[in-house]
Amino acid sequence: MAPGCHSQGDTRDEALLKIREAIQLWLEVEAEEAGVKTVETLELAV
Q: Which residues contact 28 (CB under 8 A, 6 or more apart)?
């Protein structure tokens, strides 16, 4: 889904939190590179 994104955590909850953060940052960079001015935030269940 998000090429180059990797994450881990000591617990399942920590790993999920870090995965969400990594995906959010990836989406922000992709939007910036595409010249998108606004980004809609979606919450995903993993």
A: 39
Walking along the chain (46 residues) 10 residues at a time, the average pLDDT comes out as 86 94 90 78 76
Q: Report the predicted TM-score, pTM, of the whole model to 2 decimal places.
A: 0.67
- Which segments of 1-46 does DSSP mark as H helices, in order? 12-34
Residue with token string 């955590």: 9
Q: Which residues contact 21 (CB under 8 A, 6 or more apart)?
A: 7
Q: Are 22 and 6 in contact (CB under 8 A)?
A: yes
Of 30, 28, 9, give the one whose Cα is nearest residue 18: 9
